[in-house]
């Protein structure tokens, strides 16, 4: 019976979403209330704070597939963003 309680605890810790594979926080949603997906290629689960840190201070790419992160709507521009990304044409 203890195993059932442990399972319930784990499943309710991150209600409504996936868990970030970097910090174990809830992934959360975008400004448009859609599930946040940092990498449009492999959808490796990364929360927005870890995504923002990786873009600003890390190697600016997905930890799993190594694809360079694109700027998401609401994210500040960083050095290395493509010129088109400077406009409001951000990835959702």
From TrEMBL:
- Write out the transmembrane intervals: none
Q: Where is this region: Disordered?
A: 54-92
Q: Which residues form the Cellulose synthase RING-type zinc finger domain?
A: 10-86
Q: Locate the compositionally biased regions of type Acidic residues.
A: 82-92
Protein name per UniProt: Cellulose synthase RING-type zinc finger domain-containing protein
What taxonomic ancestry is recorded? Answer: Eukaryota, Viridiplantae, Streptophyta, Embryophyta, Tracheophyta
Q: Which domain of life is it from?
A: Eukaryota
- The scientific name of the source species is Nyssa sinensis
Note the InterPro entries from the entry. CES_Znf_RING (IPR027934), Znf_RING/FYVE/PHD (IPR013083)
């Amino acid at each position: 019976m203890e195993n059932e309680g442990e399972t319930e605890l784990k499943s309710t810790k991150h209600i409504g979403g996936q868990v970030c594979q970097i910090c174990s926080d809830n992934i959360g949603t975008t400004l448009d209330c859609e599930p946040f997906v940092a990498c449009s290629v492999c959808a490796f689960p990364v929360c927005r704070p870890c995504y923002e840190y990786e873009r600003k201070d890390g190697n600016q790419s997905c930890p799993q597939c190594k694809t360079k992160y694109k700027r998401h709507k609401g994210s500040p521009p960083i050095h290395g963003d493509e010129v088109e990304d400077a406009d409001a044409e951000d990835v959702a």
